[in-house]
Amino acid sequence: MHAASREAVATLERELDTAVAGDNSVATSAQTGMELFEVVEILDAERSLRVALTDPAAAAGERVSIVEKLYGDKVSALTLTVLKSAVSQRWSNAREFREGLITLSHRALLRAAEAQGQLEQVEEELFQLSRLLEREGKLTQLLSDRNAASSAKRGLLANVLYGKVTMFTEALALQVIGRPENNPIDDIAAVSAQAASLRGKSVAHVASAGELNAEQQAKLAEKLGRIYGREMSIHTEVDPSLLGGMVIRVDDEVIDGSTSGKLERMRAALK
C-alpha cells in the first residue's frame, strides 16, 4: 500500500478497536467483520461505486452521503460508522480502499475471537490450514482456480473445515478463498500473522525434523525474542526431509540449522 492508504488503514484500525471494546464485543465485532466483507463483494462487482467512494475530487460529505443512501438501513450501526469513516479518508486508489476494507473485516473477526478467548487458537488453526494446503496440491489447485465460482470454492473448503476449527477460523478462511489476493497458502498465512500481530507478536515459521514440544517452543520463542527484540509466535511444522535440526524463517530472513542444510553446504564446499 502507498502511504496515504496505510495511514487511512491505521486510523480506521484504531477507531474499530475502540468501538468494539465492551460487553457485546464478540457479537458486534463478528457482525461488523461479516458485513464489511459483504460490502467488499459488492464493490468488486461495481467498479463505478469503488471509484465514487474514493473520488478525491468529491467532498468527503458527498462520499459519506453515498454510503448512507446505500447502506444506512442495511448494515449495523458500527459497520455504517466504519464505512462512513473509511470513505472520509484519503486513499491512494480504489483498489487499496478495497484492500483496506478487507483488512478491517479480518481485524473485526479477529477481535471477536479475542473477546471469545480464542485468538491464539485461531492463529494456530489458520497457520495449520496454510500448511495443509501446501501439502495438498490438488485441493490448493481447485481453490486457486480463478475461473471457478467463489461459492463453489467456499463450499469445498467449508466441507474440509466443518467441525474442525472455530467459527472465526472458518469465516476468515472462507473470506480469503472467496476473494484471493495472492494464493490460498500465502493469503491464509497472512491472516494468521495478522492474528499474531494483534497479540503483540511477530511470526517465526519453524520447520523441524521432529515435532517440538511446548517447552521447546517456549525456549525457542524466548531465544528468538532476544535476537529480534520483539515477542515471537512460533508456527511449527514437521519436515522429515530435514533429517535433523530446524529451519527458521522470520520475515525474509532464513536461519538454516537443519542437517540436510549442513550436508548441502558441505557438498557445495567440496566442489
TrEMBL record:
Membrane-crossing segments per the record: none
Similarity field: Belongs to the ATPase delta chain family.
Protein name as it appears in the record: ATP synthase subunit delta
Function: This protein is part of the stalk that links CF(0) to CF(1). It either transmits conformational changes from CF(0) to CF(1) or is implicated in proton conduction. F(1)F(0) ATP synthase produces ATP from ADP in the presence of a proton or sodium gradient. F-type ATPases consist of two structural domains, F(1) containing the extramembraneous catalytic core and F(0) containing the membrane proton channel, linked together by a central stalk and a peripheral stalk. During catalysis, ATP synthesis in the catalytic domain of F(1) is coupled via a rotary mechanism of the central stalk subunits to proton translocation.
Keyword terms: ATP synthesis, Cell membrane, CF(1), Coiled coil, Hydrogen ion transport, Ion transport, Membrane, Transport
Localization of this protein: Cell membrane; Membrane
Gene name per UniProt: atpH
Species the sequence originates in: Corynebacterium tapiri
PANTHER family: ATP SYNTHASE DELTA CHAIN (PTHR11910)
Keyword Manganese: no
Topological category with respect to the lipid bilayer: Peripheral membrane protein
GO molecular function: proton-transporting ATP synthase activity, rotational mechanism
GO cellular component terms listed in the entry, alphabetical order: plasma membrane; proton-transporting ATP synthase complex
Family matches, as InterPro entries: ATP_synth_OSCP/delta_N_sf, ATPase_OSCP/dsu
Coiled coil feature spans: 105-139
NCBIfam families (UniProt xref): ATP_synt_delta, PRK13430.1
